From TrEMBL:
The lineage of its organism: Archaea, Methanobacteriati, Methanobacteriota, Methanomada group, Methanobacteria. InterPro entries: CGI121/TPRKB, CGI121/TPRKB_sf. This is KEOPS complex component. It comes from the Archaea. It holds the Pfam family CGI-121. Belongs to the CGI121/TPRKB family. Coiled coil: none annotated. SUPFAM superfamilies: PF0523-like.
Length: 155
């Protein structure tokens, strides 16, 4: 399984149209880059999503959506989409590609810019309601990765 995590800047005019263009081979999941704490956070969430499907413990019926849930560290689809989902208008985008050849398509739609994957710690602290204790102990990225891991312990 080949996983790529890439950053882009661009304009989302129509979410459904954007997603339809990217359908096809493999998985392409787009998320709000501001809501991710770097490639490490997204890779951790993606790995957990894949393993959840392998164990039959997935929350969503779609691997892309499962990646959103794990990234947002929540079992609620509507909450995950509100936190990490696409919005219409200018966006910084985190793209997760799994066994997909849609990189050229993405590059025609958006401007490649991995700098958007750098965590904005103050934004993430507010978005995820992180405590000072969590941040002090493991940092923002570590705290979000820990929350993703804890999802498997919840029932």
């Amino acid at each position: 399984m080949k996983i790529k995590i890439l950053g882009f800047k661009g304009e989302i005019k129509d979410i459904n149209e954007t997603l339809n263009i990217l359908e096809g081979d493999g998985i392409v999941q787009l998320m709000d880059a501001r809501a991710v704490a770097g490639k490490e956070h997204v890779l951790h969430a993606t790995t957990h999503a894949i393993k959840a499907f392998e164990r039959g413990e997935n929350i969503a019926n779609d691997l892309g959506l499962e990646i959103c849930l794990r990234t947002a560290a929540t079992r609620q689809i509507s909450k995950a989409l509100k936190m990490v989902g696409l919005k219409e208008g200018p966006m910084e985008i985190c793209a997760v590609l799994i066994d997909s050849d849609k990189l050229d398509t993405l590059s025609r739609m958006f401007k490649r810019d991995d700098s958007v994957l750098r965590p904005d710690e103050s934004y993430l602290k507010k978005l995820y309601n992180l405590t000072e204790n969590e941040i002090e102990l493991v940092g923002v990225t570590g705290a979000l990765m820990e929350r993703t891991t804890l999802l498997i312990l919840e029932s």
